[in-house]
Every structure is written in C-alpha cells, then in structure tokens.
Design a protein that fits this description.
- It is a single chain.
- The chain is an all-alpha fold.
- Helix content is 69%, strand content 1%.
- It starts with 6 loop residues before the first strand and ends with a helix.
Length: 369
Amino acid sequence: MTQEIEKIGAVGFDRYTEIVTELRKLVETIGQAQFAVGDYALEIEPMRAFRQPEPSEEMFTVRDSLLRLAEDIGLSYSVVKNCRWAASKWPKDRRFGEVSFTIHRILGRIEDEEERFAVVRTPPEGKARWSVDDAKRRVGWRVDNPVTPEEKVSAIHELARDEAVAATVTSDFLRRPSVVSQVTPQDRIRAAEELVRDDQVAAAVVPDVLRRPSVVSQVTPEQRTRVVEELTRDDQVAAKVTAGLLRRPDVAFRAMSDDRARHEVNHAQVERGRQAREDFERTSPIAPAVKRIDRTVEFLDLVTACHAFVAACGRAVPGLRDRQLSDDEKAIIHENIARSRATLDWVETAVDTGKVDVDGELARLLQGE
C-alpha cells in the first residue's frame, strides 16, 4: 500500500504517517481532557435515577449546575453534558487510550457493560482500529460515509426528509428504467395511487391506461362494470354508449333477457312515441289535418272490424247445418257470443257517447275470465 500511494493531499505518504502519529497522541490527550471534564461534571452532578427532588437537596437542578460549570470554563453546555454522560459509561479503569473519546461516547450506547468494555478493545474484523463510522454501525446509527446499500438508502431518506427534496429526487429516480424495473408491483401500485390523487392527473392518466389492451385484459368483470358505471353517470354519455352496445346482437339479446331492462326499453319507446306525437301536434301546421285523417282511419278500422266479424260469421254459421254440437262446444260458442255481444254494446256506446272506458265486467269478458 505504501508503494501504491505516493501522496495524500499535498504530502507524501511518509510525511502523512508522521502527521497521523502526532495527531493520535493529541487526540488521546484531548480525549483525556474530555474525560476529565466529564469526571469533574460527574463529581458536581452524579448520575441519578429519575425521582422527585428531596426538600433538603440543592436548589440548582442538574441543568443549572452543568450550565454554570460550562460558562465558568468556557465550554458549551452540550459539550459538558456529553462529557459527563460518557464519563458515566466509562469508568477510568475501562477506558482504552488507543480509542478516541468520540468513539468511546458512541460505543457508550451499548447497554450491557461487559459487552461494551469488551467491544472497545475489539475493532471490527479486518480493521486495526475503530473508526467513527464503525462505531456508529455497531450501535445502529447513520454513518457519515455510507458503504452498504442499506446505509446509502438510510442516508438518502435522511437527506430527503424535506418534501420538496424528496419530490425532486423521486422524479429523477422514476426517469431511470433500470430503477423502476426493480420496484415491486405493490410499491408501484401504491406510488401510482399517490400520484393520481389529484383529479386532473387521474383524468389525464386513466384514458391512456384504458387504451392499453394488455392492461384492460387484466381487469376483472366486476371492476370493468364499476368503471363503466362511473364513466356513464352523465346521461348523454350513457345514452351514446348504450346505443352503441345495443347495435351488437349478442349484447342486445342478453340485455333484453333482463325483464326490467326490457320493460324500460318498451316504456321508453312508448314514451318517445307519445312525446313525438305531442310535439308534432303542438308545433306542426299540418297537425289538424293529420288529426282528422287519424280519426277517419279509426272510423275505417272500426267499420272494417265489424265487416270482418259479419263476414266471418256468414261463412261459418251455414256450416252448422244438420250438425249437432257437443255440450262443451256449445258452451264455448255461447261464451264467445257473450263476449261478442258485450263488445258490440261497448262499440255502440263509444259511437253514441264518445266514451271508451271499459267497466270491470266487460274487461273480464274481453280477457276471457
């Protein structure tokens, strides 16, 4: 390694080694000084369990005492507090001179004392000394120089806490196909749901997605039905779609198999005819003449019906000559004669009075009851 690296920064490797040796001595000295600050702070304010202060205790709280000490020696409160805490975790006979105060403070987070005292003298495998990042890894902290994918992910999350930063980073990542291809389907679904929360965005995306047959083919019939129902809430859209669907024989046949649907279609046809007739009678200048023709047609229909009845009877009755009908046959003929007589009475009343209402008895006769 010495031969491969000629210079580090502006100095040669030999000089760099000398500087490191000197600085390690200074770091050790600094660490001793920091532990000394902690020891003295502990003497002033020993570590204690959380409890209500006794009336006889000093009026100063722990913070007040440490804050006064920090001001008197020219250090910040946080430095004094951290030194005191580290000193409480590392008794004097357990401190290791070759390890910096900073690393001692980080490894102080190991709860088990015996494990903590053993770890500080055992660098990570393949390392001659502890580094700050190694100590942070040991206690599960975020490192300053991430190496593993997990550490890099953690660092990115930390840097992207700000929503604006996260939005920018996410947009950049999603432009990289190799990145998107590694995202699980579930995560893609969640991301898509978040991205289309805005109604305008969703409205722009959905039509494009529905144009992809490979996507539509994976949608269940129930989901397709719900989508169509949502898309056809507007009556004009629904009418246009329905007209198009009913032009497909199979669809029309299945739709008309539904009694309610068939009833609604028939009702719509009757209603449409009624509205068209009313509109014609209200707006067309030739409506009165047509109305007269309609009445003439009704007259002709009625005369034709009577003529057809008389003609049919004229052909059928002579055939009864010398023929004896059975009782059942006579009963049927008499029943139909009664229906015919009632119908003729109804026609006569309608012609004379203009009333075409059918009473209950006549209605039953006409229905064959």
